[in-house]
Design brief:
Layout lengths: L1 H25 L3 E3 L10 E3 H30 L6
Antiparallel strand pairs: 1-2
Length: 81
């Protein structure tokens, strides 16, 4: 039964990667990012920007959740343990 769960997880990851690839290929029009601090304006296709910011948000959310969980776990440890 565990092999079925692993297979479905791998299948889901593959489908999500394929959907991301289709999203990249479906949004090829270049867009520039307006940065207020510098005159440098990077240009990339819209699909790349959206997936980049989605990945950045996922990583930041995962890091924040791990830090919050670690601090809660540390706070609720019994004394001497």
């Amino acid at each position: 039964m565990r092999w079925l769960a692993n297979f479905l997880l791998i299948l889901l990851a593959g489908l999500l990667c394929f959907a991301g690839l289709l999203f990249l290929l479906g949004n090829p029009e270049p867009v520039s990012l307006e940065l207020l601090v510098t005159a440098w304006q990077p240009r990339a296709p819209l699909g790349q920007w959206l997936l980049l910011f989605l990945l950045g948000g996922l990583v930041l959310g995962l890091a924040a959740g791990l830090l919050a969980g670690a601090s809660l776990r540390k706070r609720h440890r019994p004394p001497g343990g």
